[in-house]
Design brief:
Elements: E1 5-6, E2 18-21, E3 28-32, E4 37-39, H1 83-89, E5 92-95, H2 113-121, H3 129-138, E6 144-147, H4 154-169, E7 179-182, H5 186-200, E8 207-210, H6 216-225, E9 229-232, H7 234-242, E10 253-257, H8 259-264, H9 268-276, E11 283-288, H10 293-302, E12 307-311, E13 323-329, H11 335-344, E14 351-355, H12 359-373, E15 375-378, H13 384-395, E16 401-404, E17 417-422, H14 429-436, E18 446-452, H15 460-469, H16 476-483
Parallel strand pairs: 6-11, 6-12, 7-9, 7-10, 8-9, 10-11, 13-18, 14-16, 14-17, 15-16, 17-18
Antiparallel strand pairs: 1-2, 2-3, 3-4, 5-12
Helix pairs in contact: 3-4, 4-5, 7-9
Length: about 550
């Protein structure tokens, strides 16, 4: 990992700010050594010591309102806040019996030294809010429902207690896994595996990933060698269970990651079948971004007196306040010219995602932009190999503009995306939140530009509410649409996790972990997206009325295989 270096001396910078250059991307950013705040925006004289916090490149995280002790403890952060004050500051609410106080620093955790060294090497200075409150509950071997927005550090929230659990119970890995993590998509499953390998290396933990859209042979060989942790998509795991090539009899730590999305993708029958193969005496952890009634039912059926941890308000849809949102009311003929203006205004090598509503428009835009802006397209008609190649080009910066349909709205965990552009408005405000959430991740700030037309007027009212809730400017033209009678939108109640605290100019959300992203584009067995059976274009699982759509019926069908 390339380290940052000091930028040339700039006498116009207000003290004590210093310029730094990211050793990987060459991006210039700014650091305040007094309070350890970093940000991409050039600081002004008016900014005092408590600025909105952002992420340093390479995953170094700093919190603006926590007091860090960076002395001989190796850089771990400590805070003098009481448990109640910490919860209020980070918008944490808990329910359950005798909920333990949060771990406000890594010193509080009592984690093994080799594990703490891995965390320190990754650049963490303090647990994220979801980690701080869910870790002490998980270490008591209690069931947990954890509700927090995408990119908030949920992956390490369940992985690290899983490592501790493995050390406590110590079972023969040749007899099957002890820890099982279910995830909705291939992309997310492989990201979880990468985090498990990275942080479990010093503890000699073995992790195997099972997902559809890839040959079974190598995955079966990994199982034969023995494994402590299996990360799996439900369809592929059920396939291997039916082949009797895996036993779940030793599983005593079960995680459902992105439970809401798995249900949204029609995976409930597969999840129930898997859980029947897992011993009843186990610890179950459910991590989710939203809290709809379907997730509540699963929690009630499969968990024993769980502690519920919420970050923010779970009863309303909110946008990340560290993202500055610009909504522009434009006609169809104005969009392309405005798109090129925005792209030309970006810093060199800045990563940008452009969302379109159709695959045809996605390909057309990518062709038009590729010469000037090194653009590439990704959508459901692309093969898995093509998607992997395009993503790798974008991730490494060889391609800086990604044009995508909604396959990428919940599908990317790339930390340094600076701008999201909604060329077409999505089918609903909930999808809008997920799209713009590709930027402003892991404590960084970001920008989102949205082109809004007359055909989108039915969403105007909900969008205005969302903008106001995130302290964003509402365009007069958008307000005018509501005044003319458009934009009443959907009347059903949305469920969403909260965001961080408000900041100057609509920025300054709470910093989140640089791990635990969301993603994937595999097609699903039985209505999910994880093998070639069921899915959006096939019959769906038995017991689901022949439909693979489940809760997602109202969304435009995006092929994943």
């Amino acid at each position: 990992m390339a380290t940052p270096s000091y930028a040339p001396e700039d006498p116009t910078l207000p003290k004590p700010w210093k310029g730094l250059v990211d050793g990987t991307t060459g991006s210039l950013y700014y650091w305040n050594p007094v309070n350890n705040v970093t940000q991409y925006d050039r600081p002004s004289e008016s900014k005092g010591p408590a600025q909105p916090s952002t992420q340093k490149p390479n995953g170094f995280i700093s919190y603006d309102d926590d007091k860090f002790d960076r002395s001989s403890n190796g850089g771990f952060g400590a805070t003098s806040l009481s448990p109640d004050a910490y919860r209020r500051q980070h918008e944490i609410t808990v329910s359950g019996d005798n909920v333990p106080p949060p771990f406000t620093s890594f010193e509080d955790t009592g984690f093994p030294s080799e594990l703490l060294r891995e965390v320190l090497a990754a650049g963490f200075t303090s647990p994220t809010p979801i980690q701080a409150q869910s870790w002490p509950v998980a270490l008591q071997s209690r069931d947990i429902v954890a509700i927090a927005k995408t990119g908030s550090g949920k992956t390490l929230g369940y992985l690290i207690p899983g490592f501790i659990h493995l050390k406590r119970v110590y079972k023969n890995r040749q007899m099957g896994p002890t820890v099982l993590v279910l995830s909705p998509t291939r992309e997310l499953a492989t990201q979880i595996q990468a985090e498990a390998v990275k942080f479990g290396r010093s503890s000699k933990i073995q992790c195997t990933c099972l997902y559809g859209g890839a040959p079974k042979g190598p995955q079966l060989r990994d199982l034969d060698r023995g494994t402590d942790i299996v990360v799996a998509t439900p369809g592929r795991l059920n396939d291997i269970l039916e082949m009797r090539k895996i036993s779940l009899n030793q599983v005593s730590y079960l995680v459902l990651d992105e439970a809401d999305r798995m249900l949204d993708m029609g995976f409930e029958p597969q999840i129930r079948k898997i859980i029947k193969a897992v011993p009843a005496r186990r610890q179950t952890l459910m991590y989710t971004a939203t809290w709809p009634k379907e997730v509540r039912k699963i929690a009630a059926d499969f968990m024993d007196n769980p502690v519920q941890v919420n970050i923010g308000n779970v009863n309303e849809l909110v946008a990340n306040k560290s993202i500055t949102q610009f909504v522009e009311v434009l006609g169809p003929m104005e969009k392309h010219r405005r798109l090129e203006q925005i792209l030309r205004s970006q810093e060199q090598r800045a990563k940008v995602i452009i969302f379109c509503s159709t695959k045809k428009m996605c390909d057309q835009l990518a062709r038009n932009l590729t010469r000037q802006f090194s653009a590439a397209a990704i959508h459901g008609d692309k093969s898995q190999g093509e998607r992997d190649y395009v993503l790798n080009q974008f991730r490494t910066g060889r391609s800086t503009v990604l044009v995508a349909t909604d396959v990428a709205a919940r599908g990317l965990d790339i930390k340094d995306i600076r701008v999201v552009i909604n060329y077409d408005f999505p089918t609903g405000v909930e999808d809008y939140v997920h799209r713009i959430g590709r930027t402003g991740r892991a404590g960084a700030t970001g920008e989102a530009y949205t082109f809004f037309g007359d055909k989108d007027a039915k969403h105007a009212s909900e969008l205005i509410k969302l903008l106001e809730g995130a302290n964003q400017q509402v365009p007069t033209a958008l307000q005018g649409m509501v005044a003319r009678g458009g934009g009443f939108g959907s009347k059903f109640k949305r469920w969403g996790s909260g965001a961080g605290g408000a900041g100057f100019g609509g920025r300054g959300g709470r910093p989140d972990s640089s791990f635990g992203g969301r993603g994937g584009w595999n097609s699903g067995r039985g209505g999910g997206h994880d093998s070639n059976r069921g899915g959006y274009n096939n019959g769906g699982p038995a017991g689901n009325n022949g439909s693979g759509w489940s809760r997602a019926r109202s969304r435009s069908p995006e092929r994943f295989n």
